[in-house]
Amino acid sequence: MIPSRSPRRDAPSAGGGVFARAPQGSGAGEIERLRADLIAYLQRKTRGDADAEDLVQEAFVRFHRAGHDLGAADARPLLFVIARNLQLDRWKAAGRETARRSPHDINDLVDGPRAIASETPDAEDGLIRRQNLAAAAAVIRALPPRTRDAFLLHRFENLTYRQIAGRLGVSVSMVEKHIAEALRQLKKSRDD
């Protein structure tokens, strides 16, 4: 279920769309809504993961450590991507821990690399992931406002094309075109 939002929050801003808005006044209310949206997003992905609040806190920490600003147009989608990546990393770590703790026969040590190789991703993998994230954020920022809004509403708010069309005041086929264009641009940047 998608939480209801105030009309001010859903209306496209003059600066480029639904997601291009800076925190108002004290910013605490906007940050709290963003935090609640992130928690709901992560819980939907896991059907109620109890660690969602910890992941959101870690996402905010990483966001700020990287020097990003909550007032930036790409702050919201970037926080969603960071939170999702943290969640995926946690799942992978849990899987590795489960595999590590599973009983192995002493003869498995003869298998070589599996017995001594580390499952921890190396620094190069981390750098590549950060570069890929930065490139995707740049592509999303460069999209036309309607295309960016349609893509972000679908990808990070999990809205259907019909819901997006109603929110943006366009036809469903136009939403399809916007999302297809966003995906095309992301694929093109990845292939370059």
How would you characterize the overall build of this protein?
It is built from 9 helices and no strands. The chain is mainly alpha-helical. α3 (52-65) packs across α4 (75-101). The radius of gyration is 20 Å and the shape is globular.
Q: Tell me the distance between the termini.
A: 38 Å
Q: Report the structural category.
A: mainly alpha
- Largest pleated sheet: none
Q: What sequence of helices (H) and strands (E) makes up the elements? A: HHHHHHHHH
Strand content: under 5%
Helical segment tally?
A: 9
Radius of gyration: 20 Å
Unreliable parts:
1-26
Number of strands: 0
| Mean of all residue-level pLDDT scores | 76
- Measured as a percent range, the helix fraction is 55-70%
Shape: globular
Quick rundown:
The protein contains 9 helices and no strands. By secondary structure, it is mainly alpha-helical.
SSE arrangement:
Elements: H1 7-10, H2 28-46, H3 52-65, H4 75-101, H5 113-116, H6 123-142, H7 145-156, H8 161-168, H9 172-191
Helix pairs in contact: 2-3, 2-4, 3-4, 6-9, 7-8, 7-9, 8-9
Keywords:
192 residues; mainly alpha
